[in-house]
Amino acid sequence: MKDPLIVVLLSTAVIAGTPLLFAALGEILSERAGVLNLGVEGMMLVGAVSGYIATVQSGNHWVGVIAALGAGGMMAAIHAFLSVTLRANQVVSGLALTIFGTGLSAFLGKGYIGRPVPDVFKPVEIPVLSRIPYAGKILFEHDSLVYLSFLLVIMIWIIVFKTRWGLNLRAVGENPAAADSMGIPVYLTRYLCVISGGMLAGLGGAYLSLAYAPTWVENMTSGRGWIAVALVIFAVWHPGKAIVGAYIFGGVDSLGFHIQAMGDKALFLKDVSPFFLQMLPYILTIIVLIIVTSETKKRRVGTPASLGLPYDREER
Amino acid sequence: MTTPLVKMVSITKRFPGVTANKDIYFELRPGEIHALLGENGAGKSTLMNILTGLYMPDEGDIYIRGTKVKFSSPRGAIESGIGMVHQHFRLVPTFSVAENVIMGSGDHGFFVNMKSVEEKLARFSGEYGINVMPGSKIWQLSVGEQQRVEIVKMLYRGTNIMILDEPTAVLTPQESRELFATLRRMADMGKGIIVISHKIQEVLDNADRITVLRDGRYVDTFSGKDTDSRKLTMAMVDRDISFGQNLADKPKGNFILRLKGLTVLGDRGQKALKSLSLNLCKGEILGIAGVAGNGQKELAEVIAGLREVAAGDIEVRGERFTGKSARAMIDAGISLIPEDRLGTGLVGPLNIMENSILKNYRSGEVASGWFINWKRVREYAHRLVDKFDVKTTGVDAPVRMLSGGNLQKLLLAREITNDPDVIVAVYPVRGLDVGAIEFVRNILLRQRDTGKGILLISEELEELFMLSDRVAVIHEGEIMGILDREDFDLERVGRLMAGEREEGAYERAANR
Ligand SMILES: Nc1ncnc2c1ncn2[C@@H]1O[C@H](COP(=O)(O)OP(=O)(O)OP(=O)(O)O)[C@@H](O)[C@H]1O
Ligand SMILES: [Mg+2]
Predict the structure, then answer these.
(1) Could you report the predicted ipTM of this complex, rounded to two decimals?
(2) Closest Cα to atom 24, ligand 1: which residue?
(3) How many domains, chain B?
């Protein structure tokens, strides 16, 4: 039986959106605690290459996932040290890490370009759920990392909004001085959030090299880290909205392939330049940013109040 | 004798360039309200920040209930039962009251059920007779309400050593009385209360004992019953204070600023000023009385060109200035001394030189063409600092390092040196000590005598009566009445402030 076009489109949107989702979830954690991490792109690349190498060497993709988590976490630890302990400018530190990560991943991946992944993440149907008409195919016939991302969305949502930890970490991002005088360890909280954020960025990268592509190509994230950063704003720092946003971007991202694959059936769309189609996610990013920022200004929701500001107890 | 709750011995704390505390002694007993009195920059906040574990002392020992302690973070102080309401509240504006109260504490399980926390909190604060609404967001609350949240926050943590840093600076007289009644109840339960202040009368009325600091040093501890305001003033400033005399009934000049039926929206889209009319003459101080939050901030901002006019007109020297930019207003000779010195008035991280030329960076005095002549700026800043006696480590120091009084002096120096025609001063002495208050008030009087028009927004009626030629009373964005100097009357102004309109207020405002 052939699936309707819309189901295929949405199903690929989920896959293309998953790396964005991982990275955006990580960025939400970090920014909720008040640390802007612009190193996501670099962390994704390093995650992608280390996940790839570890899988090639070990033959087991879960080893690759762990390597990616570790690599992303280590990159983020550098960012935390620079921006939390040394109180360096977070924008500069993040940009530096992106540049560093791009170079490092290219260097590490040199000998591996074009090598096949021995243990690719393959789709696993979830017994009952995948039978649901339409939704089953769209959501429940994917690889295990996609399911992991579902779990993470729920977990992070619960942690951030329903638990003591979440209350404390949001307090740190909104007003570290208030949090500090209530006995919340500001630095520790920021370290933990930045590092787990980096781990998730690394995982997002590994999804590209182990499931989505699956191979290693230099600079293979091609700006997805930046889209993830924008996605966080689109999602107003909320994991539930991040998943929706990620799939919208994923859908636009994969549109080009579909149109090419459809050939003549794509009607007038087949004449649209493929370069234009490739531009779409980035154009969408800009449009979304304009709309969302002007909206959030009107309502009182949005940016954690201390985002980007280092905290120093004795400073005033 | 009972052991003191707190004993601080030989406390010294240095910051780059200043010694904020030098060899200070302080003692707090259970059941007392203990006032900490001193001029701006005397080191009061610093001493208390040391007690709460925010700052580490360079020297000295702290004893809590007789045991020596060393706090390396606020957590330790909290565990010893110490809590503080800071000069600038430490609340998360986007959180609810309940969230602010419980954050950082561990006694409500990993999964937080806000509903049950809110119920518990309502009961808890009720027991102490403090009225807070646990579900409302902080940004929706008035300053007085926010302060109550801070107090509940401490009580909820089981605090029995409570510190309040200048708690009445932002309160109306009514709210201040309520606050001290609450604090007295806490003291009667055996808690120790420390109140930082520089209002001598308030301290005399409410404190059991008073410790005075001056220039970072310990002066003496007085018993509230056995001292008087003269002794305290002497201890605080080490000199005699006299306020300049108001020479009433100066000949009035012409209208310099007219507001005609001005309607202005506030931050939340509500009508903050409702068709308000006022005239300001040359050579007069027009006082604006009213409870904070009745449109004073918006009034000042719209005159300075910082807020849009929704309806009505602004005229300067007979010329229409409605909807002009802030720069146009500055060029028209309108100067604003804003309420938040570090938000609107000065830029915290910039140094004194940079701040001193924020408004006249284009003038020939400091600029040549597109470039700024920093040598001349330095001289200019030095002149301001000398003339207005700003205490600082140098003109290269970031202004956020200055204490409240010195910030205000710098701000006045900048504004007045530009020789404006109209000065809008919003709570110009809020948070200042007697010496600085005297200084600021004398400057305003002198400016009036040189023919400037001054709009003085204040909530202290005594100050308004002392300085103003006329007083207009504002309530919910409307002028309720305007009194001439000979009609000044506390009772009558109080009624107007509460919203009782006087016949003919508009006509008098418009036609005077
Ligand atoms: N974090 C800091 N960094 C540098 N200098 C500081 C800091 N905190 C205070 N100071 C300096 O220490 C001195 C004492 O300041 P403090 O805030 O304790 O005074 P205060 O008595 O509370 O004054 P005010 O009545 O204006 O609040 C001032 O000269 C101030 O500039
Ligand atoms: Mg202070």
Answers:
(1) 0.86
(2) B40
(3) 2
